[in-house]
Amino acid sequence: MDDEWVPEATRLAVVRILEHAELVGLANTEEFTFRSFFMTAACELLYKPRFQTDGARSTSSSRPTTPPR
Questions:
Q1: In the chain, how long is the greatest CA-to-CA distance?
Q2: Hey, what long-range contacts does 49-54 have (CB within 8 A, 24 or more apart)?
Q3: Is the separation of the CB atoms in 21 and 29 below 8 Å?
Q4: What span, in angstroms and rounded, lies between the C-alpha atoms of 3 and 56?
Q5: Residue whose C-alpha is closest to residue 12's, from 60, 45, 48
Q6: pTM over 0.85
Q7: 46-to-26, 36, 39, 65, 69 alpha-carbon distances in Å
Q8: Which distant-in-sequence residues (6+ apart) come within 8 Å of 40 by Cβ?
Q9: Residue ranges of domains in the chain
Q10: What is the radius of gyration, based on Cα positions, of the chain?
């Protein structure tokens, strides 16, 4: 798998997350924001990247269950 783009996408995401933290404060900066910045960088560097969401990896044990009667 060609993953040479990963370091550059990570660098771009880190630059963006630092700028974001300057604007909104570190307390208002979370993992999901970094993920979105990483995905944005990947879209800029790659042609039609594909991402796997957490929901696609979920197992049946993580599905809501019906309460007992």
A1: 54
A2: none
A3: yes
A4: 22
A5: 45
A6: no
A7: 29, 15, 10, 39, 51
A8: 12, 13, 16
A9: 1-48
A10: 17
pLDDT digits (tens, 9 = 90+) for 2-61: 889 999 999 999 999 999 999 999 998 999 999 999 999 999 999 988 888 777 555 555
- Count Cβ atoms below 10 Å from residue 13 Cβ, excluding itself: 20
Structure tokens, 16: 């963006």
Distance CA 23, CA 25 (A): 6
What is the rounded CA–CA span in Å between residue 61 and residue 23? 39
Q: Are 38 and 13 in contact (CB under 8 A)?
A: yes
